[in-house]
Amino acid sequence: MKGKAVQVPVAKNEEVVVDIVGLTHEGEGVGRADGFTLFIQGALPGERVRAKVLKLKKTYGYAKLQELLVASPDRVDAPCAIYKQCGGCQLQHLSYKAQLAWKRQHVVDNLERIGKLRVAGSGEGAADDAVVVHPTLGMSEPWRYRNKASVPMGMAATVTGGDGDGLVSPERLIGGFYARGSHRIIDMDECMIQHSRNDEIVARVKEIGRELGITAYNEETGRGLLRHVMVRVGFVSGEAMIVLITNGERIPQVERWIERIREAIPGVTGIVQNVNTRDTNVIFGDKTRVLWGSEVIYDELEGIRFAISARSFYQVNPVQTVELYRRAVEYAALSGGERVIDAYCGIGTISLFLARAAGHVYGVEIVPEAIEDAKRNAELNGITNASFEAGLAEVVIPRWRREGIVADVIVVDPPRKGCDEALLETILAMRPERVVYVSCNPSTLARDLRVLEDGGYRTVEVQPVDMFPHTVHVECTVLLKWRES
Ligand code: SAH
User: Fold this and answer.
1) Who is most buried in 54, 299, 447, 472, counting CB within 10 A?
2) How does pLDDT run across 390-415, given as a tens digit for each residue?
3) Region at 476 (left for phi over 0; alpha for psi -120 to 50; beta for the rest)
4) Would you say the CB of residue 390 lies under 6 angstroms from ligand 1?
């Protein structure tokens, strides 16, 4: 190949001294060795490390941290014993304060690089209309915050007979997490970011499964029954739902299974089965049925009650969700008569927060069960000025527009891939005075903000919220205003 050949100054397996200059969006240290970029898991900005080169590509490589020569003042000991193996958290070795600062900077970098936006306070000559990015809103107690656990199940033999007779027990049911970068399941009973009730419930379900000789699904052979155990607990209500995701319809001794769960785990209000027989990493299959109890759990956010069914999206960190939604409502700046569209509404959480201050809220969401929940939730709270429709936001909202439903404010809260282009075009055509963009992915957020900016909106302010402490994820609420208003 012609063109400038990049000199690779390091060799595979070589040990090199590297200065760490940044952190990738996956939490790896970005190092420079003789100007060449090396990604190093576990290294932090400002550090100097000795690392062994593992893998080389043309313009960058990966290296393994061997020794810290100069440690960052922000480095802390990760409190979780399985942090290195697990990979579920990526930032436990960085102080919480520094995590929050890094998350804000990560948002700023995306807005500048991808969104081509000017951020107030960064760089020269920030103009009046520069975007204000607030400090990340953190948690005062950033542990045990998750209300939902989805635990993959597997089988493993254990060596018994402590006096060295080396008896290998038959394979038994285990469940925990996939070892970093693999699909090998490691048994685990405690996760420090999980609500302790979820940990207890999963541990009990595993014990009972073992007693009853339940087998776990094996991805390679396609055999075995139990794929995942999902548990969701209501932080306010204390209610809990167990979902057994199975490879097939029939659960042996299902009555006994239910009875044992009910005896052993008080407070469980529903046991649900979801059937997934496909060869896929996607957790849920299409078929869900209630084995016992209620098909939903109830929970409460700021005095609004929500019914949540197994397949519906519900934010995993309820403490921070309230903060996030408060900002969304504040940015919507409603005075009582507005028509508001809530795109990607899930079970209507943001919609119902907004409805308290709006004329009417129209919610749209792709998962039909979530829309059923949303309708039930409006009723549950006596809210009559919110209506919901199942469908693709990018299809339903243009149709609403043709039918004369024009919003004063549009709120969008899309999944990681961001908004569909057709939806952005509809927003530009509908031209609401305000757009509130709730995002869980700064890069697609920045991409979409550029489209809205080019169409005549101004990004006014961004509030990063730490919904997922100790992980690299960051959520943002963003206010955009129509320039000419
Ligand atoms: N606003 C809700 C849900 C946000 S998560 C809350 O805060 O709880 C994003 C939601 O978008 C999910 O419920 C997902 O099912 C839904 N979704 C994904 N793609 C969609 C699309 N193209 N149209 C409508 N909804 C979609």
Assistant:
1) 299
2) 999 999 999 999 999 999 999 999 99
3) beta
4) no
Domain assignment of residue 62, given as a range: 15-70
Looking at 274, 301, 328, which one is the last position of a domain? 301
User: How many distinct structural domains can be found in the chain?
Assistant: 3
Are both 163 and 292 inside the same structural domain? Answer: yes
Predicted confidence band at 208 (pLDDT cuts at 50, 70, 90)? very high
Distance (angstroms) between ligand 1 centre and the Cα of 312 equals 9
Does any domain span residue 106? Answer: no
Classify residue 321: in a domain, yes or no.
yes
The crossing angle, in degrees rounded to 10, of helices 442-454 and 421-430 is 40
> Do 186 and 219 reside in the same domain of the chain?
yes
Task: Provide the β-strand partners of residue 437.
Answer: 412, 478
The structure tokens listed for 201 are 């419930």
Q: Are residues 246 and 383 in the same domain?
A: no
- Ligand 1 atom closest to 315 (CA): 8
**36 touches ligand 1 (CB under 6 Å):** no
CATH number, position 258 = 2.40.50.1070
Could you tell me which residues come within 8 angstroms of residue 480 by beta carbon, excluding any fewer than 6 positions away? 434, 435, 436, 437, 449, 452, 457, 458, 459, 460
Q: For ligand 1, say whether the CB of 393 is within 6 Å of any of its atoms.
A: yes
pTM listed for this prediction: 0.93
How does pLDDT run across 250-296, given as a tens digit for each residue? 999 999 999 999 999 988 999 999 999 999 999 999 999 999 999 99
